[in-house]
Amino acid sequence: MAAQPSLRRLARQRSVARKLALQALYRWQLNECSWQDLVQEFAGAEDMPRADPEYFRELVEAIARSHAALDAQLAAWTDRPAAQLDPIEHAILLIGLYELSARPEVPYRVAINEAVALTKRFGATDGHKYVNAVLDRAARQLRSGET
What we know:
The protein is mainly α. It has one domain (3-142): NusB-like (N-utilizing Substance Protein B Homolog, Chain A, Orthogonal Bundle), CATH 1.10.940. 71% of the residues lie in helices and 0% in strands. The protein contains six helices and no strands. Helix 1 crosses helix 4 and helix 4 (87-102) runs parallel beside helix 6. The two termini are 29 Å apart. 37% of the residues are buried.
């Protein structure tokens, strides 16, 4: 039984890390800088004590380093170029796609549900439907053994 609370705590910490990564990647889209600067800037964020800081760093670093490749992958499942996506939804899609492609221990449903929850909270009114559809299509290909 002792493992359950720590798993729940880790899940909550990762959710907060995703939220902070969304904010960092949104800011990065508006004013590009190094991933190191983003990590340093967000280290003092109000929510950082409740986050998994290593996961936050991994998300920001990996997505900043490979955003062109992620955008190329994303093009297969979206109806418009990445440059035409809403910046919030684009950042969320990058996080979800990164988790689907590089973090096999994160169940695909968790990656999609977390992305949808972030979009409902920060995105456009029906943006969560778009994010859900795109990541569902991506999961069918990237995680065909799970879906």
